[in-house]
Amino acid sequence: MQTVKLGIVGVGTMGAIHAQSVLEGCIPRCQLTAICDPKAERLNLFSAVEGFASVDDLLRLSEIDAVLIATPHYSHTTIGIKALETGRHVLVEKPISVHKSDGERLLAAHHASNQVFAAMFNQRTDPFYLKLRQLVQSGDLGAIRRVSWTITNWFRTEAYYRSSDWRATWAGEGGGVLLNQCPHNLDLFQWIFGMPAQVRAFCHFGRYHDIEVEDDVTAYLEYPDGMTAVFSTSTGEAPGTNRLEVAAERGKVVIENDLFLFTRNEVPMSEFSRTDPGRFSAPQTWEIRIPISGHGPQHNGVLGNFVSAILDGTPLIAPAREGLNSLELANAFLLSTLENRAIKLPIDGALFNQHLQKLIASSTRPKPGVFRTGSDDMHRLTTNKSLSR
Amino acid sequence: MQTVKLGIVGVGTMGAIHAQSVLEGCIPRCQLTAICDPKAERLNLFSAVEGFASVDDLLRLSEIDAVLIATPHYSHTTIGIKALETGRHVLVEKPISVHKSDGERLLAAHHASNQVFAAMFNQRTDPFYLKLRQLVQSGDLGAIRRVSWTITNWFRTEAYYRSSDWRATWAGEGGGVLLNQCPHNLDLFQWIFGMPAQVRAFCHFGRYHDIEVEDDVTAYLEYPDGMTAVFSTSTGEAPGTNRLEVAAERGKVVIENDLFLFTRNEVPMSEFSRTDPGRFSAPQTWEIRIPISGHGPQHNGVLGNFVSAILDGTPLIAPAREGLNSLELANAFLLSTLENRAIKLPIDGALFNQHLQKLIASSTRPKPGVFRTGSDDMHRLTTNKSLSR
Question: What single DSSP character describes residue A122?
Fold first, then answer.
């Protein structure tokens, strides 16, 4: 195989961007062969490419090697399973599913070791986070003690939430900021720091918007080694903040406003505390500014890596199975709020799903039949009018 | 009265600093008339001033108008009550007491409206916090939605904790970072933002040091109007952070590293969200840097204000009764951890005291008999060797 023949399912906001990138030649050795969307006017935007209204037809009739899934969240599972079962390589948008049980079903459909299955965690290509991960993994920071990520620059207007009827509903999207905007941050969090032992989260539902799902979250995390963390997010705050602070034995890292600042302790803080005779003394520090420019290749980087993984066996930037962790964190934050208690990880996926089904059942929002969890909704999804992101 | 004749009880670390300030003439119209400390070598440092080993003798024999109490926390209550009962004006170091019930007993001893009773919340004189309070109270920020204060620059060494046997014990100090370092921050918090409706806190006991009390705290607060907040502190982190971030309708304020930054929304964020047709748009902002230099007169400012209140009737910067709020917050954070649940305010002071007594009873640390809560320990305190701060 010299090139990868790609089919894109869902050419709403993100799918259309991906299609355009491939058509413009931004992804070497990748050819856009087919697209699929129930909306004819969207298919018409890409008239040079074979278009299908139904996923079944796409998978049955087109000669694609790989599928990129950019549909509403619930259908990632159903369409992903279907695509994997045809043997195609699959790249799925984040989140890989809406809830842990669906995520596990999706991953279970991936058997073949030579079948590439990746997830669109494009922020893993950002050199700020790559550098932080390197500092953590190399031991340059020493043991990590506390992390605080305030990520409130996901401001969204009411117009945004009104733009699709599936959006920000339990039946249509399965969650709010944790499912739509934060999968990136949650993925980076587990990618850099690993998974916590337990979480206590405080989600607010429709705090800032006329929606039923969470648009404001404060979560407290405890790790097996004692590390603690706070993760705060909101789609209601403007101007918002994106600040990641890491307190470690070897010093403090702050990533904010395109700056990477490392205040390095000459002596690790706990060692200094134990050995220094002063009562009010503190370690000498170096103020280090690590120069980083730009935010990396992002979506095109992940898509190009997917193609290289298929053609050359290049390791994936974001294997789909790792997408289960951000999903588990999002589910755990909601579960903690709904059960009003700390939640130990791994969570009970069935318990979370029970809560989700109750929320869907008691929702007063539009509930198109197609937006149901479970394995039998794939066909209906493919004919629904609301595939837009 | 032309000058205030002051007596200082406890001339350890803070008391000695206050005594020196008065002797050097830093406090107009204030005369250091007497000091009291059980340690003779401390009294000898101030040989120009009448010295007493016992509080009872000081209050009975010296011609002082006012008393400044700078003893270990528990005795603030007992000595404070005794001093108030003699009719003296009283300035008490923070915290006003160790727990809410003691604080209420102390305040109940203050009857006379012309008797001045103040607390040493010196950070209320800091122009950074004065300016923030002004912006909040004037409505310039609009409704406050979220506050985050990371105040981890209270690093203390093991040598600090070993410096006195009463320090960082349940019996001797009654708490850790919340009782010793953070009363300032908790007082500023309530002074600027008011009191929360409930809190959920996660205190870690001896996380960084060989102590039994809390040296690391993460607290989540919810306010009656829906405002949320996170308060994080530690004495184990170096280099530490002191960053106060306020997300309000009219924009965001960040106080950090001697900068006061106000990113002002031209349109309040919720109004913009409701009315703007864009899906990914956000309010236009002004980046405002409010010039502030220095951190104000601090301790001398509060002491001078105490003198002016006595001589001129000047309103107090920090009336002692307001010290109950920071105490209630500190107690509530501990109570939430000990009961492993969210705590509604006002707290049940008796319930907190039950927990504290259990902690004292089960402690394996030195428990000098003098470091007991209750009203009968005053005499013993005045003869104990460990009045040092």
Answer: G
